[in-house]
Amino acid sequence: MRKGIDVSCFNDGVDWKDVRGAGMEFAIIRLGYGHRHLDELFYKHVNGALDAGLLVGTYYYSYALCPEDAKDEARFTVDILEDCGLPPERLAMGCWFDMEDADEWKTKHDALDPFLLTDMCAAYVEQMEDLGYPAGVYASLSWLEDLIETRDLPLGTPLWCARWGNEPGFPGVRLWQYTDKLPIGNQYFDGDIWF
């Protein structure tokens, strides 16, 4: 079991030495979101985490509305990873497809059908695999239970479950986001456990 955090542009000013000093072993960093939008702090976070001796992974916040959109998000992910010199073997914490609807984009575009969501997750994972980068799916417990048909994902797709509390609540997850209030220094982070 390893402890770590996940970060995005909403976590500016991270003191990566403090993160390491707090016992964190990894950081999963948002690479981008939507139609080829790079997270403006991606390179800074990756370099800071690596310089502090942390293992790294990435996630991509999806705005896909169909499987072809998800494939394009995967191709963009790999374009950026190749540009910054991160081959799969340097991504010990993997690549993750962030499937949620925090700003109701999918709701507004009538894209919350479980079969469609599952097809989009599968399309991203398969495209990443085709490009040489294994990938998994991030979602809340309720999405994993009610909206994503996990049994229909490509065989062996790792899952990252977001659920605040004492356990992930979903069987067989690889990664668990257990809080959004992990204090390190004078900041709060999303806290994660790798099984």
Automatic annotation (TrEMBL):
<dbReference type="GO" id="GO:0009253">
    <property type="term" value="P:peptidoglycan catabolic process"/>
</dbReference>
<dbReference type="GO" id="GO:0016052">
    <property type="term" value="P:carbohydrate catabolic process"/>
</dbReference>
<dbReference type="InterPro" id="IPR002053">
    <property type="entry name" value="Glyco_hydro_25"/>
</dbReference>
<dbReference type="GO" id="GO:0016998">
    <property type="term" value="P:cell wall macromolecule catabolic process"/>
</dbReference>
<comment type="similarity">
    <text>Belongs to the glycosyl hydrolase 25 family.</text>
</comment>
<dbReference type="InterPro" id="IPR017853">
    <property type="entry name" value="GH"/>
</dbReference>
<dbReference type="GO" id="GO:0003796">
    <property type="term" value="F:lysozyme activity"/>
</dbReference>
<dbReference type="Pfam" id="PF01183">
    <property type="entry name" value="Glyco_hydro_25"/>
</dbReference>
<protein>
    <recommendedName>
        <fullName>Glycosyl hydrolase family 25</fullName>
    </recommendedName>
</protein>
